[in-house]
Amino acid sequence: MIHCFEPANLHICRGIKKKKIKLLQMKNNHTTKNIIFDFGGVILDIDPQQTIEALQELGFKDVMRFQDKDFQANIIDKFERGILSPETFRNKVREFMQIKACNQDIDDAWNALLFDIPENRIRVLEEVKKNYNIFLLSNSNEIHYDMYLRDLQLRFGYHNFDQLFHKAYFSFDLHLSKPNPEIFEFVMNQHKLIPEQTLFIDNTLIHIEAARSLGLQTYHLVKPEKVRDLFIDGMLRPDLIQ
Ligand SMILES: [Mg+2]
């Protein structure tokens, strides 16, 4: 299939001759014009273990409860959809983890999972933007946002993510999160994007599956592959294009 951007299927894609690929492209109008990027794990590396360890240092004893479904659904997911304010989120973390940490300590622990944005990924995006309409679609929250926005501003001189991308969307702002199909439909409708001409890149399989069910092209980025590996001089690698 044309939208088989799973790494496991690459050998199949690579096996198709370029002429045949071009014919398919013209016939099905599948030329990629738009690329929607995930943020965490694609543009920015993350390591949740760092946050767990930082919370332990604040006195959080029962680490296994970090994976607790109620905690994920009622605190983390709601914070990501902007249903909880940062203040309410911090209070719920204190209550759930039975810790008495100040706001700054909780924010620092929560942000511990974020790495700096690698400069080479910013440069890749700048090149890719010359050839495609590029968008950011991130499940994120206000505390993390403040941290990596500052990184973007101080290290790269951008005012915000709408300058780096044609448009950036964050779950806490939209009150929707991936994999809910509505978040993809919202972005597609906002820019009148044609699904077959739109590639979605994410490191989370359920997000990829949701986008694919709406007809988008998809690429599931799996470690150790980096997003820069998908492009040459700002263009999608020829063997990835169908
Ligand atoms: Mg991700």
Textual characterization of the structure:
With 242 residues, the chain is of the alpha/beta class. It has two domains: 4-45 and 117-236, Rossmann fold, CATH 3.40.50.1000; 48-111, Putative phosphatase, domain 2 (DNA polymerase, domain 1, Orthogonal Bundle). Helix content is 46%, strand content 12%. The chain contains twelve helices and eight strands. The chain has helices at residues 10-15, 18-28, 48-57, 69-80, 86-97, 103-111, 119-128, 142-156, 161-164, 171-174, 181-190, 205-213; strands at 4-5, 34-37, 133-138, 167-170, 198-202, 217-220, 231-232, 235-236. The strands form two sheets. It has a six-stranded parallel beta sheet. Helix 4 (69-80) runs antiparallel to helix 5. The model is unreliable at 6-28 (pLDDT under 50). Magnesium ion binds next to loops.
